[in-house]
Amino acid sequence: MSSGSSDIRQQIPLLHPDTSVQDLDALKTWYEAVADALRTEVPFDLFALWIYSPTGEPILVEPEALAQDNLEVPHARPTAPLDALVAIEDRVRRAGYGSVLVHGIRHGKRDVGLIMLAGFDPHRFDAELDQAVGSTIEVIAPMLARVTRHNGVVELSAIDEGPPPELAGPPSSGPRVSRPGDFDLLDALANAIGGAGTPRDLLLAVSFGIQALLPHDCYELLIPDSEGSKFYRLGVHG
After folding, report:
1. Domains along the chain with CATH numbers
2. Which strands make up the sheet holding 110-119, listed edge to edge?
């Protein structure tokens, strides 16, 4: 990985855990920060960002003027079809941009957003710049996934409501019933472990994945070495 890609990862700020798809002002401010980070490595003339709602509907974050261009941005079901993304690239090229890149922001098995970069000069996006864009997507994917799930937070406190269990009698031999949210937590952890490119990406992905079920402001992971005699401490704050 190039040092430029590493710098981009460090420059992209965190989205507040309570941000939802309705918080467009917060998303627009964050978009500007992401654009500033990208601009250090990718010389673009146009940067557009869409976030997918929980139902897969594309919501334009910025720039607002693109809403008038009828780009026919596809829904995510659960991912955006490749031919639709290629069609957007072709339409933007016909508008006068020599280089266009449209890429789904995937987290796990679904797209949580869509990113578009365009430049007036042809052949502007080479392999190194593609790597920088890929690094950016890896960092922002778990953040946007957390945003799209914000409205579907499961309140675990409601699980304990109801009459207390009977104390008499033998223990039940029936199968254990998973609490609501158990599978969401496991899915979030699996996506974090499978999609993280760096330790920082792993920490961010785990943080955003467990925030709904285990609210926190900071956390640490202790990772043992191969012999189990030493531990490495990784932490994320803010």
Report:
1. 3-151 (3.30.450.40)
2. 58-62, 46-52, 110-119, 99-107
